[in-house]
Amino acid sequence: MARQLGLWVLALLLVVLLLGGSLFRVGQGSIAVSTRLGQLEPDVFGPGLHWKLPLDRVHRFDERLTTRTYPGESFLISDQRTLSVDFLLRYRLTDVGLFYQRTGGDEDVAVQRLADLTRDRLKATVAHETLAMLQSQPRGGLSAEDYASLQAAARGLGVELVDLQLQHIDLSDQAASAVYQHMEQAFSSRAQQFNVKGTLQADQIRSDGERKSAELLADATRQAQQIRADADARTAALYARSYGKNPELADFTQSLTAYKSSLEHAGDVLVITPEGDFFKYLRSPSAQASAAPGPARH
């Protein structure tokens, strides 16, 4: 009896093991295939609980949209400068059987092949573009034909290429340093040109100012001399008319001028004879009146 019970327990354990090896679960968002002795079985399993033979091996894959990024890729543009480019690939698994056959079920292998093809296409495109054009065009200027070719290559691997984007485009450190140095030299050259031009303009303005100033001074001097000459002539004419009418006034005026010239400075000494004509206007009014001749009678 005990032996028979042991056999039943053993049989039950074998059934449990067989059931455990024949049932498998596929999670939400995943897909699975099975292989038997290394050969791919035709059935594809979606999410849920499924049966298989105990010797079959199950391979699960994520069929949701996946994004892979590739930062710091180096590309040479048309002016022979090196760019640092970050790009991304978005894809999803569409044909799990084909995918397993082409890659052995290794997703990294499939994506690496797709990334290599994308990198080659981008390098060929970027080599004919400028930095400004790359930054302004979608997918770095990649043509529709090239993108369609990449999608066809992805389908050949059992995946769908949903999107390709260039996330970041910038000059490499060495190229950026060369550009900044070139910009600095260009700005320095322009500054020197402006300085030279400004100096020339300043010299020209200064020369014109000095010339105009000299012309104005010469014209003013000429006008002043002309005015002074006219005034002297009018003064002389006025004196002549006055002296002609009154010779005594002329004599008096000339004497005052002589006095002024002779006694102009402090400490000047003038030696004259009191009875001389030079001294007659310095006498007292009474003496001058006694010395003066009588009025003429007509």
The percentage helix is: 40-55%
Structural class: alpha+beta
Number of helices: 8
Give the CA-based shape: rod-shaped
* Strand order in space, largest sheet: 3-2-5
Number of DSSP-assigned strands: 8
- State the distance separating the first and last CA atoms: 201 Å
Sheet of most strands: 3 strands, antiparallel
Low-confidence stretches: 286-298
Please state roughly what percent of the residues sit in beta strands, choosing from under 5%, 5-15%, 15-25%, 25-35%, 35-45% or over 45%: 15-25%
Mean pLDDT: 77
Q: Secondary-structure element order, as H and E?
A: HEEEEEEEHHHHEHHH
Any idea what the radius of gyration is? 59 Å
Strand and helix map with partners:
Elements: H1 2-22, E1 23-26, E2 30-36, E3 39-45, E4 48-51, E5 57-62, E6 66-76, E7 82-93, H2 96-103, H3 107-126, H4 131-136, H5 144-155, E8 159-171, H6 173-245, H7 247-262, H8 285-291
Antiparallel strand pairs: 1-4, 2-3, 2-5, 6-7, 7-8
Helix pairs in contact: 3-5, 6-7
